[in-house]
Amino acid sequence: ADFDAKKKRKVAEIYQALNSDPIDVAVLRRMAISEGGLLTDEIRCKVWPKLLSVNTDDLPPLPGKELREDSKDYQQVLLDVRRSLRRFPPGMPDDQREVLQEELIDIILHILKRNPQLHYYQGYHDIVVTFLLVVGDRLATALVEKLSTHHLRDFMDPTMDNTKHILNYLMPIIDQVNPEVHDFMQSAEVGTIFALSWLITWFGHVLSDFRHVVRLYDFFLACHPLMPIYFAAVIVLHREQEVLDCECDMASVHHLLSQIPQDLPYESLISKAGDLFVQFPPSELAKEAAQAAQAERTAASTFKDFELASVQQRPDTVLRQRFRERLRGEERLRGEERTKSILTKPRTNRFVKLAVMGLTVALGAAALAVVKSALEWAPKFELQIFP
Protein backbone atom coordinates (compact mmCIF):
# COMPACT_ATOMS: atom_id res chain seq x y z
CA ALA A 1 0.00 0.00 0.00
CA ASP A 2 2.84 2.36 0.86
CA PHE A 3 4.53 1.61 -2.48
CA ASP A 4 1.31 2.29 -4.39
CA ALA A 5 0.83 5.56 -2.54
CA LYS A 6 4.39 6.67 -3.34
CA LYS A 7 3.90 5.71 -6.97
CA LYS A 8 0.65 7.70 -7.20
CA ARG A 9 2.33 10.73 -5.65
CA LYS A 10 5.20 10.49 -8.11
CA VAL A 11 2.87 10.15 -11.10
CA ALA A 12 0.94 13.20 -9.90
CA GLU A 13 4.14 15.20 -9.51
CA ILE A 14 5.32 14.22 -12.99
CA TYR A 15 2.04 15.29 -14.61
CA GLN A 16 2.02 18.51 -12.59
CA ALA A 17 5.50 19.31 -13.99
CA LEU A 18 4.35 18.40 -17.52
CA ASN A 19 1.26 20.60 -17.25
CA SER A 20 2.97 23.63 -15.75
CA ASP A 21 3.67 26.63 -17.96
CA PRO A 22 6.53 26.57 -18.77
CA ILE A 23 7.09 22.82 -18.32
CA ASP A 24 9.22 22.19 -15.24
CA VAL A 25 12.06 20.22 -16.81
CA ALA A 26 14.16 20.33 -13.62
CA VAL A 27 11.43 18.42 -11.76
CA LEU A 28 11.17 15.92 -14.62
CA ARG A 29 14.92 15.33 -14.43
CA ARG A 30 14.66 14.74 -10.69
CA MET A 31 11.78 12.31 -11.20
CA ALA A 32 13.77 10.41 -13.85
CA ILE A 33 16.75 10.07 -11.49
CA SER A 34 14.94 9.23 -8.26
CA GLU A 35 13.76 5.79 -7.19
CA GLY A 36 11.73 3.97 -9.82
CA GLY A 37 12.53 6.47 -12.57
CA LEU A 38 9.63 7.41 -14.83
CA LEU A 39 7.60 4.29 -13.90
CA THR A 40 5.79 3.57 -17.20
CA ASP A 41 6.39 3.74 -20.94
CA GLU A 42 3.32 5.98 -21.25
CA ILE A 43 5.04 8.55 -19.04
CA ARG A 44 8.36 8.08 -20.86
CA CYS A 45 6.65 9.00 -24.16
CA LYS A 46 5.79 12.35 -22.59
CA VAL A 47 8.94 13.01 -20.52
CA TRP A 48 11.82 11.75 -22.67
CA PRO A 49 11.13 14.41 -25.35
CA LYS A 50 11.22 17.10 -22.66
CA LEU A 51 14.54 15.82 -21.30
CA LEU A 52 15.99 16.03 -24.82
CA SER A 53 14.22 19.26 -25.82
CA VAL A 54 12.41 17.66 -28.75
CA ASN A 55 9.23 19.29 -30.02
CA THR A 56 6.68 16.50 -30.44
CA ASP A 57 4.42 18.78 -32.52
CA ASP A 58 6.99 18.97 -35.29
CA LEU A 59 8.26 15.43 -35.82
CA PRO A 60 10.12 14.52 -39.03
CA PRO A 61 8.26 12.49 -41.65
CA LEU A 62 8.92 8.76 -41.72
CA PRO A 63 11.97 7.94 -43.86
CA GLY A 64 11.51 6.23 -47.20
CA LYS A 65 13.06 2.98 -48.38
CA GLU A 66 15.25 4.80 -50.92
CA LEU A 67 17.73 5.47 -48.11
CA ARG A 68 18.87 1.87 -48.31
CA GLU A 69 20.12 2.26 -51.86
CA ASP A 70 22.26 5.28 -51.07
CA SER A 71 23.69 4.38 -47.66
CA LYS A 72 27.25 3.08 -47.25
CA ASP A 73 26.21 1.73 -43.82
CA TYR A 74 23.18 -0.25 -44.97
CA GLN A 75 24.81 -3.69 -45.07
CA GLN A 76 26.38 -3.35 -41.62
CA VAL A 77 23.16 -1.99 -40.11
CA LEU A 78 21.22 -4.84 -41.70
CA LEU A 79 23.58 -7.43 -40.19
CA ASP A 80 23.42 -5.85 -36.74
CA VAL A 81 19.63 -5.56 -36.76
CA ARG A 82 19.25 -9.18 -37.86
CA ARG A 83 21.38 -10.21 -34.89
CA SER A 84 19.24 -8.21 -32.46
CA LEU A 85 16.50 -10.80 -31.89
CA ARG A 86 16.99 -10.92 -28.12
CA ARG A 87 16.39 -7.18 -27.83
CA PHE A 88 12.70 -7.71 -28.62
CA PRO A 89 10.20 -8.87 -25.98
CA PRO A 90 10.07 -12.66 -25.56
CA GLY A 91 7.01 -14.11 -27.22
CA MET A 92 6.56 -11.25 -29.70
CA PRO A 93 5.11 -12.67 -32.96
CA ASP A 94 7.68 -12.96 -35.75
CA ASP A 95 5.75 -10.73 -38.15
CA GLN A 96 5.50 -7.94 -35.55
CA ARG A 97 9.21 -8.19 -34.75
CA GLU A 98 10.13 -8.13 -38.44
CA VAL A 99 8.15 -4.91 -38.94
CA LEU A 100 10.01 -3.34 -36.01
CA GLN A 101 13.36 -4.48 -37.39
CA GLU A 102 12.57 -2.81 -40.72
CA GLU A 103 11.64 0.39 -38.85
CA LEU A 104 14.87 0.13 -36.87
CA ILE A 105 16.94 0.02 -40.06
CA ASP A 106 15.10 3.02 -41.52
CA ILE A 107 15.51 5.12 -38.36
CA ILE A 108 19.26 4.54 -38.24
CA LEU A 109 19.81 5.27 -41.93
CA HIS A 110 17.61 8.38 -41.73
CA ILE A 111 19.64 9.83 -38.85
CA LEU A 112 22.95 9.09 -40.57
CA LYS A 113 21.72 10.65 -43.83
CA ARG A 114 20.64 13.85 -42.06
CA ASN A 115 23.86 14.05 -40.05
CA PRO A 116 26.81 13.11 -42.29
CA GLN A 117 29.23 14.08 -39.50
CA LEU A 118 28.01 11.06 -37.50
CA HIS A 119 29.53 7.63 -38.07
CA TYR A 120 27.67 4.42 -37.36
CA TYR A 121 29.14 2.04 -34.78
CA GLN A 122 28.17 -1.51 -33.84
CA GLY A 123 25.99 -1.20 -30.76
CA TYR A 124 24.23 1.97 -31.89
CA HIS A 125 21.24 -0.15 -32.92
CA ASP A 126 20.94 -1.36 -29.30
CA ILE A 127 20.19 2.19 -28.22
CA VAL A 128 17.85 2.92 -31.13
CA VAL A 129 15.77 -0.23 -30.56
CA THR A 130 15.16 0.79 -26.94
CA PHE A 131 13.63 4.07 -28.07
CA LEU A 132 11.69 2.36 -30.83
CA LEU A 133 10.09 -0.11 -28.42
CA VAL A 134 9.16 2.62 -25.92
CA VAL A 135 7.99 5.54 -28.07
CA GLY A 136 7.42 4.25 -31.64
CA ASP A 137 9.22 5.03 -34.87
CA ARG A 138 8.56 8.73 -35.52
CA LEU A 139 9.28 9.92 -32.01
CA ALA A 140 12.23 7.53 -31.70
CA THR A 141 13.75 9.07 -34.83
CA ALA A 142 13.60 12.57 -33.37
CA LEU A 143 14.83 11.55 -29.90
CA VAL A 144 17.75 9.44 -31.12
CA GLU A 145 18.81 12.14 -33.58
CA LYS A 146 19.05 14.66 -30.73
CA LEU A 147 20.79 12.09 -28.53
CA SER A 148 23.27 11.27 -31.29
CA THR A 149 24.36 14.88 -31.64
CA HIS A 150 24.74 15.31 -27.86
CA HIS A 151 25.14 12.43 -25.38
CA LEU A 152 26.35 9.88 -27.96
CA ARG A 153 28.38 12.30 -30.06
CA ASP A 154 31.81 11.04 -28.95
CA PHE A 155 30.95 7.46 -29.93
CA MET A 156 30.06 8.56 -33.46
CA ASP A 157 33.40 10.08 -34.41
CA PRO A 158 35.45 8.57 -37.27
CA THR A 159 37.88 7.09 -34.71
CA MET A 160 37.47 5.64 -31.22
CA ASP A 161 39.80 8.18 -29.61
CA ASN A 162 37.07 10.03 -27.70
CA THR A 163 35.39 6.78 -26.68
CA LYS A 164 38.69 5.53 -25.26
CA HIS A 165 39.10 8.84 -23.44
CA ILE A 166 35.71 8.37 -21.76
CA LEU A 167 36.68 4.81 -20.76
CA ASN A 168 39.80 6.29 -19.14
CA TYR A 169 37.57 7.88 -16.48
CA LEU A 170 36.62 4.42 -15.19
CA MET A 171 39.80 3.59 -13.27
CA PRO A 172 40.18 6.99 -11.56
CA ILE A 173 36.59 6.69 -10.25
CA ILE A 174 37.31 3.21 -8.89
CA ASP A 175 40.59 4.49 -7.45
CA GLN A 176 38.81 7.21 -5.48
CA VAL A 177 36.51 4.73 -3.76
CA ASN A 178 38.46 1.48 -3.50
CA PRO A 179 42.21 1.71 -4.15
CA GLU A 180 42.65 -2.00 -3.47
CA VAL A 181 40.32 -2.96 -6.34
CA HIS A 182 41.93 -0.31 -8.54
CA ASP A 183 45.48 -1.57 -7.88
CA PHE A 184 44.45 -5.19 -8.34
CA MET A 185 42.89 -4.40 -11.73
CA GLN A 186 45.95 -2.40 -12.75
CA SER A 187 48.24 -5.28 -11.86
CA ALA A 188 46.04 -7.70 -13.77
CA GLU A 189 46.45 -5.34 -16.76
CA VAL A 190 42.76 -5.84 -17.49
CA GLY A 191 42.27 -2.38 -18.97
CA THR A 192 38.77 -1.00 -19.54
CA ILE A 193 37.68 -2.71 -22.75
CA PHE A 194 35.33 -4.99 -20.78
CA ALA A 195 33.12 -1.93 -20.23
CA LEU A 196 33.07 -0.78 -23.87
CA SER A 197 29.77 -2.45 -24.79
CA TRP A 198 28.22 -1.17 -21.55
CA LEU A 199 29.15 2.40 -22.39
CA ILE A 200 28.32 2.61 -26.09
CA THR A 201 24.93 0.86 -25.75
CA TRP A 202 23.98 2.42 -22.40
CA PHE A 203 23.91 -1.19 -21.11
CA GLY A 204 21.16 -2.08 -23.59
CA HIS A 205 23.29 -4.82 -25.16
CA VAL A 206 24.22 -6.59 -21.92
CA LEU A 207 21.06 -6.47 -19.79
CA SER A 208 18.39 -9.02 -20.64
CA ASP A 209 15.48 -7.46 -18.72
CA PHE A 210 14.01 -4.55 -20.67
CA ARG A 211 12.66 -2.96 -17.47
CA HIS A 212 16.19 -2.48 -16.19
CA VAL A 213 17.34 -1.02 -19.51
CA VAL A 214 14.64 1.66 -19.64
CA ARG A 215 15.18 2.47 -15.96
CA LEU A 216 18.81 3.23 -16.75
CA TYR A 217 17.79 5.26 -19.81
CA ASP A 218 15.58 7.42 -17.55
CA PHE A 219 18.64 8.05 -15.39
CA PHE A 220 21.11 8.72 -18.20
CA LEU A 221 18.77 11.01 -20.15
CA ALA A 222 18.40 13.22 -17.08
CA CYS A 223 22.12 13.41 -16.33
CA HIS A 224 25.52 14.48 -17.59
CA PRO A 225 26.65 12.41 -20.61
CA LEU A 226 29.47 10.84 -18.59
CA MET A 227 27.05 9.26 -16.10
CA PRO A 228 27.16 5.84 -17.83
CA ILE A 229 30.87 5.54 -16.98
CA TYR A 230 30.09 6.30 -13.33
CA PHE A 231 27.46 3.57 -13.42
CA ALA A 232 30.01 1.19 -14.93
CA ALA A 233 32.35 2.01 -12.03
CA VAL A 234 29.73 1.27 -9.36
CA ILE A 235 29.04 -2.12 -10.98
CA VAL A 236 32.73 -3.01 -10.64
CA LEU A 237 32.83 -1.67 -7.07
CA HIS A 238 29.69 -3.64 -6.21
CA ARG A 239 31.58 -6.80 -7.26
CA GLU A 240 34.63 -5.98 -5.13
CA GLN A 241 34.97 -9.38 -3.49
CA GLU A 242 34.54 -11.28 -6.73
CA VAL A 243 37.27 -9.18 -8.32
CA LEU A 244 39.74 -9.60 -5.46
CA ASP A 245 39.08 -13.35 -5.30
CA CYS A 246 39.84 -13.69 -9.01
CA GLU A 247 43.18 -14.86 -10.44
CA CYS A 248 45.26 -11.73 -10.96
CA ASP A 249 45.68 -12.01 -14.70
CA MET A 250 44.11 -10.17 -17.59
CA ALA A 251 42.13 -13.07 -19.03
CA SER A 252 40.53 -14.07 -15.70
CA VAL A 253 39.58 -10.57 -14.58
CA HIS A 254 38.34 -9.57 -18.04
CA HIS A 255 36.17 -12.71 -18.23
CA LEU A 256 34.69 -12.03 -14.80
CA LEU A 257 33.90 -8.37 -15.41
CA SER A 258 32.57 -8.79 -18.94
CA GLN A 259 29.92 -11.24 -17.65
CA ILE A 260 27.60 -8.66 -16.13
CA PRO A 261 25.22 -10.00 -13.44
CA GLN A 262 21.53 -9.66 -14.28
CA ASP A 263 20.34 -9.37 -10.65
CA LEU A 264 22.08 -6.11 -9.79
CA PRO A 265 20.49 -3.83 -7.15
CA TYR A 266 19.76 -1.17 -9.75
CA GLU A 267 18.21 1.50 -7.54
CA SER A 268 21.07 1.28 -5.06
CA LEU A 269 23.67 1.46 -7.83
CA ILE A 270 21.93 4.41 -9.48
CA SER A 271 21.99 6.22 -6.14
CA LYS A 272 25.69 5.46 -5.66
CA ALA A 273 26.55 6.57 -9.20
CA GLY A 274 24.83 9.88 -8.49
CA ASP A 275 26.72 10.20 -5.21
CA LEU A 276 30.07 9.54 -6.88
CA PHE A 277 29.35 12.06 -9.62
CA VAL A 278 28.74 14.70 -6.94
CA GLN A 279 31.83 13.79 -4.93
CA PHE A 280 34.19 13.27 -7.88
CA PRO A 281 32.90 15.29 -10.84
CA PRO A 282 34.49 14.83 -14.27
CA SER A 283 36.43 18.09 -13.92
CA GLU A 284 38.32 16.62 -10.95
CA LEU A 285 39.06 13.36 -12.76
CA ALA A 286 40.08 14.79 -16.13
CA LYS A 287 43.79 14.96 -15.25
CA GLU A 288 43.83 11.38 -14.01
CA ALA A 289 41.97 10.20 -17.12
CA ALA A 290 44.67 11.82 -19.27
CA GLN A 291 47.36 10.18 -17.15
CA ALA A 292 45.60 6.84 -17.52
CA ALA A 293 45.87 7.23 -21.29
CA GLN A 294 49.60 7.88 -20.88
CA ALA A 295 49.94 4.87 -18.56
CA GLU A 296 48.36 2.63 -21.18
CA ARG A 297 51.20 3.44 -23.53
CA THR A 298 53.84 2.54 -20.94
CA ALA A 299 52.04 -0.29 -19.18
CA ALA A 300 54.93 -2.77 -19.27
CA SER A 301 57.16 -0.54 -17.17
CA THR A 302 54.61 0.05 -14.40
CA PHE A 303 53.68 -3.44 -13.25
CA LYS A 304 56.66 -4.40 -11.06
CA ASP A 305 54.49 -6.57 -8.85
CA PHE A 306 54.40 -9.25 -11.54
CA GLU A 307 58.18 -9.53 -11.57
CA LEU A 308 58.19 -10.01 -7.81
CA ALA A 309 55.37 -12.57 -7.75
CA SER A 310 56.16 -14.47 -10.93
CA VAL A 311 57.64 -17.46 -9.12
CA GLN A 312 54.65 -17.84 -6.81
CA GLN A 313 51.96 -20.40 -7.53
CA ARG A 314 49.22 -17.85 -6.84
CA PRO A 315 50.65 -14.38 -7.49
CA ASP A 316 47.24 -12.79 -6.93
CA THR A 317 47.40 -13.79 -3.25
CA VAL A 318 50.79 -12.15 -2.91
CA LEU A 319 49.58 -9.03 -4.67
CA ARG A 320 46.47 -8.71 -2.52
CA GLN A 321 48.59 -9.02 0.61
CA ARG A 322 50.94 -6.32 -0.63
CA PHE A 323 48.02 -4.00 -1.47
CA ARG A 324 46.52 -4.45 1.99
CA GLU A 325 49.86 -3.73 3.67
CA ARG A 326 50.26 -0.65 1.52
CA LEU A 327 46.78 0.60 2.44
CA ARG A 328 47.43 0.06 6.15
CA GLY A 329 50.57 2.13 5.74
CA GLU A 330 48.57 4.87 4.04
CA GLU A 331 46.08 4.93 6.91
CA ARG A 332 48.94 5.57 9.35
CA LEU A 333 50.32 8.36 7.19
CA ARG A 334 47.12 10.24 6.40
CA GLY A 335 48.64 13.59 7.26
CA GLU A 336 51.58 13.10 4.89
CA GLU A 337 51.78 12.81 1.16
CA ARG A 338 51.79 9.12 0.28
CA THR A 339 54.06 7.49 -2.28
CA LYS A 340 52.64 8.26 -5.67
CA SER A 341 50.44 5.60 -7.24
CA ILE A 342 50.41 4.50 -10.87
CA LEU A 343 48.31 7.56 -11.62
CA THR A 344 50.65 9.74 -9.49
CA LYS A 345 47.84 11.06 -7.30
CA PRO A 346 47.99 11.59 -3.52
CA ARG A 347 45.24 9.63 -1.81
CA THR A 348 45.29 11.25 1.62
CA ASN A 349 42.48 13.69 0.81
CA ARG A 350 40.24 10.87 -0.30
CA PHE A 351 39.97 9.36 3.16
CA VAL A 352 39.03 12.71 4.69
CA LYS A 353 36.51 13.44 1.94
CA LEU A 354 34.83 10.06 2.17
CA ALA A 355 34.73 10.19 5.96
CA VAL A 356 32.95 13.52 5.81
CA MET A 357 30.59 12.85 2.95
CA GLY A 358 30.05 9.11 3.13
CA LEU A 359 29.33 6.96 0.10
CA THR A 360 25.56 6.80 0.49
CA VAL A 361 24.44 10.40 0.38
CA ALA A 362 20.64 10.61 0.19
CA LEU A 363 19.73 10.64 -3.49
CA GLY A 364 17.63 13.77 -3.11
CA ALA A 365 20.69 15.92 -2.54
CA ALA A 366 22.78 14.08 -5.09
CA ALA A 367 20.03 14.31 -7.70
CA LEU A 368 19.88 18.07 -7.37
CA ALA A 369 23.62 18.35 -7.94
CA VAL A 370 23.50 15.91 -10.87
CA VAL A 371 20.66 17.89 -12.44
CA LYS A 372 22.61 21.10 -11.92
CA SER A 373 25.67 19.58 -13.60
CA ALA A 374 23.54 18.41 -16.52
CA LEU A 375 22.27 21.96 -17.00
CA GLU A 376 25.81 23.34 -16.86
CA TRP A 377 27.18 20.71 -19.25
CA ALA A 378 25.81 22.12 -22.50
CA PRO A 379 24.25 25.56 -22.08
CA LYS A 380 23.45 25.94 -25.78
CA PHE A 381 21.52 22.68 -25.69
CA GLU A 382 19.69 23.65 -22.52
CA LEU A 383 18.71 27.06 -23.84
CA GLN A 384 16.33 25.19 -26.11
CA ILE A 385 14.65 23.73 -23.04
CA PHE A 386 14.45 27.05 -21.23
CA PRO A 387 13.64 29.62 -23.96
UniProtKB/TrEMBL annotation:
The chain crosses the membrane at residues 190-207, 219-237, 351-371. It is found in: Membrane. One of its GO terms (molecular function) is GTPase activator activity. The keyword Membrane applies. Residues 38-224 form the Rab-GAP TBC domain. Pfam families: RabGAP-TBC. Its main location: membrane. SUPFAM superfamilies: Ypt/Rab-GAP domain of gyp1p. Keywords: GTPase activation, Membrane, Transmembrane, Transmembrane helix. It is a multi-pass membrane protein. This is TBC1 domain family member 20. GO terms for biological process: endoplasmic reticulum to Golgi vesicle-mediated transport; Golgi organization; vesicle organization.
